[in-house]
Specification:
The chain is about 30% helix and about 30% strand. With about 300 residues, the protein is α/β, with parallel strands linked by helices. The strands form three sheets. It has a six-stranded mixed sheet, sandwiched between helices. The protein has a four-stranded antiparallel sheet with strand order 11-12-10-13, sandwiched between helices. Helix 5 packs parallel to helix 6. The two termini are about 35 Å apart.
């Protein structure tokens, strides 16, 4: 597969009996990008990541991580990738410094000086026992352990799940600072869409195990728009090109469309609305338009 991509999958599939958890997923994550992998809970995000890291066997298909097949180069990939799992388990009887020392033995590139720097940036106390730390602080420890060996690829799987909104924001801001310093490839899985909008430059959306959109952030925002129209004498039947969803409010209708173009706008104007407005959408609004209602 192409080394221009830090992660690449071809028809990656995982079945549990008759259930398709991941359905012929074709994904390309450009090297050096901050890639947001978005989907509702149960969409197949974690299953995909676990297959990428050879933590779960794939049913069919191919996957490449840093140009390597995880099933054949498992140890090399783990040495070159930093991984933060949702609710990551650690030896909670250890202190922060002890678990850092313990993990250092697994990596030739472990950087003790960088560990000390990260502790300061993430406001971690080396002598605190993990079992006494809040979930937010434990998430920061997991991030420290994932970064200390200078990985080429950082994979974050719902790292802020279950944290309160203030702690989530602090964690994300910490990740932003570290990303800007290191310039690494980051693959960020989440269903909390608004939190990744500020840091991602690529977006992949998965729903029911299938990849339904994969584009640079700005291209996606140009592609998905909302057209608001007001009619005097009832709302006509709408069949706009790329129509995703619509919402009716009295004589007004708001239509979300994908692959927006001049053709779409011409189709809307041909309905002769009393007024027509074109709206840009946030990433969260785009996500809802693509996969359905919020949870």
């Amino acid at each position: 597969m192409d080394n221009a991509f830090a992660i690449e999958t071809r028809d990656l599939t995982k079945k549990y009996g008759k259930k398709l958890a991941v359905d012929h997923l074709n994904l390309k994550v450009p090297s050096g990008s901050v890639f947001a992998f978005l989907g509702r809970n149960g969409a197949g995000k974690t299953t995909t990541i676990r297959m990428m890291l050879n933590l779960l066997d794939r049913t069919t298909g191919d996957v490449s991580v840093l140009g390597l097949d995880p099933s054949k180069k498992d140890i090399e990939i783990k040495r070159r990738v930093g991984y933060v799992a949702e609710g990551q388990r650690m030896y909670d009887w250890m202190t922060v410094s002890q678990i850092a020392w313990f993990c250092s033995g697994f990596y030739d590139t472990w950087d003790d000086a960088y560990v000390q720097e990260l502790m300061k940036q993430l406001e971690l106390s080396p002598n605190d026992k993990l079992k006494n730390l809040s979930r937010g602080t434990q998430a920061k420890v997991a991030l420290l352990l994932a970064l200390a060996h200078h990985p080429e690829l950082l994979i974050l799987d719902e790292p802020t799940a279950g944290l309160d909104v203030v702690v989530r924001r602090e964690f994300i801001e910490g990740v932003i600072d570290l990303i800007q310093q290191e310039g690494r490839t980051v693959f960020f899985s989440s269903h909390l869409v608004h939190e990744v909008e500020r840091i991602a430059n690529w977006v992949g959306v998965v729903d029911n195990g299938r990849l339904i959109e994969c584009k640079p952030m700005e291209e996606l925002k140009q592609s998905v728009k909302r057209i608001s129209m007001v009619f005097d004498d009832g709302i006509p039947d709408l069949h706009l090109t790329g129509q995703l969803s619509h919402e009716t409010l009295g004589r007004q209708i708001r239509v979300s469309v994908n692959n927006f173009s001049d053709k779409t706008l011409a189709e809307a104007r041909a309905l002769n609305p009393k007024s027509l407005d074109l709206e840009d959408l946030s990433l969260e609004d785009i996500f809802v338009a693509l996969v359905g209602d919020k949870e």
